[in-house]
Amino acid sequence: MRPVGLAAVNHLTVALASKPGSFLTIEVVCDASAAVLSLGPAGDSLSGGKLLSAVPIVNTGTAAAQNVTLNAITLTGRVLSSPTLPFGLGTIGPGSSAVLNADFVGAFVPLGTYGLNVKGTYAEGADTFCFSLNGNLTVPPASPGSNAFGTATVGGNTVMGAPFPPQPPDFGKENNPGYTVPIGPSVPGGPPPGSTAVMNAPIGDPPAITFTINNDLGITSGISGTAEPSDASGGGVVYISANWRAAFSKDGGSTFTSLNPTTIFPADAVGFCCDQIVQHVPSIDRFVWFLQGGKTGGYRLAVARPADIINGNGTAWTYWNLTPQVFGEPAGTSFDYPDMSVGNNFLYMSWDGNGGLQVARTSLSGLQAGGTITIEFTHPSDSSMAWGSHLMQDTGDEIFWAGHNNSSSMRVFSAQEGSNMYFWRDVGVSSWAANSPLTSNSPDNQNWINFVMNPTSQNPGGGFPKNAVLGGTRVGNLLWFGWSAGTDGNFPQPHIEIVTLDRNNNFNKTQQVQVWNPNYAFAYPAFATNVCTNEVGISFEFGGGGNYENHVVGFWGDFVAYITTGSNSGSTRFGDYVSIRQAPATDANPGNLFDAFGYGINTVPPLGSGVQTDVHYVQFGRPASSCGPPIG
Description:
Blueprint: E1 12-17, E2 25-30, E3 37-39, E4 43-47, E5 50-59, E6 65-75, E7 79-82, E8 87-92, E9 97-105, E10 113-124, E11 127-138, E12 145-148, E13 150-154, E14 157-158, E15 197-200, E16 210-216, E17 229-234, E18 237-242, E19 245-249, E20 257-259, H1 261-264, E21 276-281, E22 286-292, E23 299-304, H2 306-312, E24 318-322, E25 336-342, E26 346-352, E27 357-363, H3 364-369, E28 373-377, E29 398-406, E30 409-416, E31 421-428, H4 450-453, E32 469-475, E33 478-485, E34 495-502, E35 508-515, E36 521-529, E37 536-543, E38 550-555, E39 560-563, E40 579-582, E41 593-603, E42 611-621
Parallel strand pairs: 15-39
Antiparallel strand pairs: 1-2, 3-5, 4-5, 5-9, 6-8, 6-10, 7-9, 10-11, 12-31, 13-28, 14-24, 16-42, 17-18, 18-19, 19-20, 21-22, 22-23, 23-24, 25-26, 26-27, 27-28, 29-30, 30-31, 32-33, 33-34, 34-35, 36-37, 37-38, 38-39, 40-41, 41-42
């Protein structure tokens, strides 16, 4: 994250007075205003000798700041090239923000920090106020570039004495906006592909797709519109996490046993807050559970065999506490928004750290042994633009992740197994709609997509995860990346942008396509690769246009998204991710299926007492015949 420091606002009332035979005089009087302006977390990138920046102007007060006009924008020792001043931002309502896109010319040093000052005026009723806001812009590292992994060792622990007394989740700082995508040079794209239709997941399977499971888990993440489901299956067990809850199934997903994570592990220094990620690693026959800690920061990494979960009813785990000190950070450093991916020989983890996305890895053999493990980790300041992004799935012998320098340039990171270095390079893409507020209303007039981009009382600096690159999967040498995008002349509804890059051809772009529909919105993409056909499966959310928000799945290229849930209520706090994994191969389904988890939102009876999430386990894919005839 590149936070632009908050500054005290000078509230000045302007009163006008005149007398015959004299010029108009202006008396400026200090006064208080119910609108309070500040600077939110900025994004910045170098392009063509310019520093491009996107800086939210945030109103944390209780009244609207009307006719916000910027009269001076200065960056230490540099020259403003755009916008032309004075520049109007319109009205910024309470708890809202407007993005200032400002470009500067001059000499810039990578990782150099430059003081920013923004001055202007706004109206509140009949009064006019002026403000002066101070912060910093920090130039990202030069590209192409590289850095060495940091290293640390962490001792293992074994759960003993579970279940423990339940504890309330220990909430720390989470879902903080950390990067705002600057507007880059205009790069025209090709015509958009055909729009994606939406239909109910079929009962009788059409020839091109099969659904074997679509089960309501019978658990919720609490009275909330947020579930963040993650899943894995293997060894006859299905394991799922859903924000504050977890569950497992011993019968292939037909029935589930609910778990409270605070009863599984002791109440130690890491604690438990919320976000969780689950994977199954066939090569070591282990479930891996990654849980976000509480206010003290850090994560808990836990492993268990399917047999351990069955025999111990979900309470038998070996675990490692990954505190901030492991990564050279002081206690209390906020980590947030975890993700996880499995490579050939390594487990990869990521989270939003101190200044950007941090990626860590540890060997699968070390997790299998259950003792002291070695953790290798990146430096967050290298990847500020990847704040909120997720790791690539099905990644093989090299891990990838990405973020947006600006709306026409991505920075793609990679690390090969066997190397102690990670690398990055910039890749040009066609311009897309960045930073636009997202609106998609459910039938009860709730903007279900609100939290992705828009400020809220929880996040006045902007929404989350904004335009972060959430979807990612590897298909041979092609790298697929996807993210939530806004509206423009081509796309009247929020939609999903997808870019594919050729790993073996200098990471050049091979296509840029969209999942879109003129009548409703799509967001929160997650990707995985079909083992048999090498097609990309998508798990995501849709809503608006007379529809409640619901989980959908499908294949890229079919242009059909299948609804798996049945929401009957809207929410302005949906999020913040769904999941999809390769399903374990069986004799009946030899690699043709995906496991996907998403959720809908339902009212809690009696009507009006609240809403709760309805998490679903979905297994779908191509027919088994897509894998070809059995061998032998």
